[in-house]
Prior knowledge:
The complex is a heterodimer of chains A (255) and B (65).
Chain A: E1 2-3, E2 6-7, E3 12-15, H1 22-32, E4 36-43, H2 49-60, E5 63-66, H3 74-88, E6 92-95, H4 108-120, E7 124-129, H5 133-141, E8 148-149, H6 163-172, E9 179-181, H7 187-195, E10 200-203, H8 205-208, H9 213-232
Chain B: E1 2-5, E2 8-11, H1 17-23, E3 32-35, E4 38-40, E5 55-63
Parallel strand pairs in B: 1-5
Antiparallel strand pairs in B: 1-2, 3-4, 3-5
Amino acid sequence: MEIYGTKLNSRLFLGTAQYPSPKVLCAAIAASSSEVITVSLRRETSEGTGTGFWQMLQETGARILPNTAGCHTVQEAVTTAQMAREIFDTDWIKLEVIGHADSLQPDVFGLVEAARILSEDGFKVFPYTTEDLIVGERLLQAGCDVLMPWGAPIGSGQGLRNPDGLQAMRAHFPDTPLIVDAGIGRPSDATQAMELGMDAVLLNTAVAKAGDPVKMASAMAQAVTAGQMGYQADPMPRRDMAVPSTPVLGLAEFA
Amino acid sequence: MKITLNAETREIQATTLDAAMRELGLTSQALATALNGAFVSRAKRAATPLNEGDRIEVLAPMQGG
C-alpha cells in the first residue's frame, strides 16, 4: 500500500492512548506490526512528561501520525496541525474537526475547509470523515489523497455501523486509499472492514482497553491480513438457498 | 506583565515569547507554541513580542488515537 508516496507493509494503524502502561503500549505496537502510530498534543505539564513520551515513541521506529483530536473549529485544528508538524517533524496530519461533543461526529464542513487550508500549506492530510460520498469528493478536491471514514463513533467498539456505506465508498473511490478510523471493537470488525475492500484500519481503544492489549494487537494484525487476503481472493456470491457442495451425481439409493 | 499560560495567569518579566519560555522553565525541544490562537514557530519566538494579557499555549506530545 502506498499513501502520499510512502510504501507501507502493514495495513493496521495503531493509536497510543489509554494503555495500562508505557511498557504495554510499546509491546502492543510491536505485536501489531503497525508502521504508523497516532499521537496527539496537549498542554505541557509541570512534570514535562511529553518529552519522555516522545522519546519512547521514536524508539519504536514507527511513523508518527499526529492528530487534531478534540478540535471543534477550523482554527483550532489548523493551529494544532501546525504545532504538531514542528514537534513531530512530519507533514502528515490526521485531521479531526469534531462537530458534536457526545457523538464525536466529524463536522464535515469544517473538515473540508481545514483540509484545504492545510493541504495548501503543504500538509498531507488524513481526514477523519463520514461515509458521505460528496464530502469525500470535496476532501479530494481540497487536496487529500486518502479518506478515513468512521466505522462507528470513536471509542464505542460497535464495529461497522454502515457497511453498505463503506462499500459504496469503495465503489465510488476505487483508487483512493480508504482507512476505517474509529469504532472497531473486535478482530472480526477489522476483518469485515478489509473484506469490504478498505485499504487499512486505524484503531486504538479496541487494543488499549482489551484485557490483554498485546494479544489483541496481534489478533488485530492477523484479522486485518485475513480480511485483506479474503477481499483479494474475491469471495463467492451469497445465495438465498442451500446448494449442495457434495456432488449429487452418483448418490446411492437405499430406499 | 500578566500573561496567560495554558489557561493560568502568570506574571513575567520577559518581553518576547522566546524569553518567556526560558523564564517559565519551558526549555524542552518537544514543545510547540501558539500566541493568541495562532501558531508561532520555534524560529520566530525570539522576534515575537508579548503584550499584557496575551494568551500563550504551550503543547507537548501526548498519547492519542
